[in-house]
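Might you be able to check the backbone structure tokens below? Thank you kindly.
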Amino acid sequence: MEKVRIYTRKGDRGKTSSIFGGRVCKDHPRIGAYGAIDELNASLGVATSFIKDQQISDILQNIQNELFNIGAELASGSKLKKKTGGYYKLDQFKIICLEKIIDQYDKNLPALHTFILPSGSNAASFLHLARTISRRTERALTTLAKREGVNPNILAYLNRLSDLLFVLARTLNKGVRRKEALWKKG
């Protein structure tokens, strides 16, 4: 098999190819949305490189795979779903799975009575960063959803994902005995 070149020069004028042909501007909300998914995925990769807990690493790797599926669903709109019988369509079950993981880890954390600063160990800090990227990605998808159809399960999944990343960051800090920095008002 011949190796494909990394660069094509086709995107040099601000347009990119869609999965099913045709060119679209790179600043289109759909391109922005799945670009944000890609950034979120990369940030999880950085965070995972600092995580020593294999169970949490496995959870995050599964989420990274799911983010690729979400990116494929977003990149294709409705066309890919028709061709694959809905293979790439994110369903409610994936959201429920995130909720179960959140509950599993959150039950071992102390209750919060104020905001905490996004900080701590390297692993936890990078998960806090990924959480904020997840929130920004959710905003990008909300903008796209106002303009075009978006699977509402994707929005719910990202919302739950940011909650999970918060809980996992707290869990990692607890595991290395890093005290949470509380927000000091005024």
Remarks:
- The beta strands are 15-17, 23-25.
- The domain at 15-175 is CATH 1.20.1200.10 (Hypothetical Protein Ta1238; Chain: A;).
- The chain has six helices and two strands.
- The CA atoms of residues 98 and 171 lie 15 Å apart.
